[in-house]
Amino acid sequence: MPGYLTRQHTVQLGGHDYRIRALRDLQQFADPDGHAEQAGISSALWSLFGHIWPSGRVLAEEMCVFDIAGKRILELGCGLGLSSLVLQRRLADVVASDHHPLAESFLAYNAALNGLPQIAYRHLPWAEADGALGHFDMIIGSDLLYERGHAELLSGMMQRHARRECEVLIADIGRGNANSLSKALASQGYSIDERRCRFEETDTAPFRGRLLSYRR
């Protein structure tokens, strides 16, 4: 037994059913070797990577139709990797990344569960430079701005890993930290567009959630 319980979901995206192994609930926790603690992940936050969140689904739906031709794509904070699975099915050049110690194994399991080739994965704490990772034409993520300091960390990631011409797409549920990221990316030469959209069936307009799109 790994010390945590899982369940399987089926998510329909772009006309395909994706089978996803996720944690059974938010009460799951297992860190016998202290790897999560060393990564700064508390027991209260440990299980968050292992669920299908509305923002992740919105981003994955966008990846079903987004123009990806010729683009090298990086997913930040991939969690279970729903968007990366969609991109892998579309034969995109995608690298999934996270800093949770179990993200890579869940991603590999879910790729195999859906009959897809293994997805390139990178352990990528946002505050640390990774000179071997290279540069990308597109950087995506969902609900990345859940703490005030994340805008600064993310803008630093873009400086290190975005190509001169780059697109950044973030599904943001509206925690109030998006303006800081927008200002930081504007200073790097990005134009900014946002589209408010429904993240939950019960959401009503004007929607709190939005897709943040940055281009340069």
From TrEMBL:
<keyword id="KW-0949">S-adenosyl-L-methionine</keyword>
<comment type="similarity">
    <text>Belongs to the methyltransferase superfamily. METTL23 family.</text>
</comment>
<dbReference type="InterPro" id="IPR019410">
    <property type="entry name" value="Methyltransf_16"/>
</dbReference>
<protein>
    <submittedName>
        <fullName>Protein N-lysine methyltransferase family protein</fullName>
    </submittedName>
</protein>
<dbReference type="Pfam" id="PF10294">
    <property type="entry name" value="Methyltransf_16"/>
</dbReference>
<keyword id="KW-0808">Transferase</keyword>
<dbReference type="InterPro" id="IPR029063">
    <property type="entry name" value="SAM-dependent_MTases_sf"/>
</dbReference>
<keyword id="KW-0489">Methyltransferase</keyword>
<dbReference type="GO" id="GO:0008168">
    <property type="term" value="F:methyltransferase activity"/>
</dbReference>
<dbReference type="GO" id="GO:0032259">
    <property type="term" value="P:methylation"/>
</dbReference>
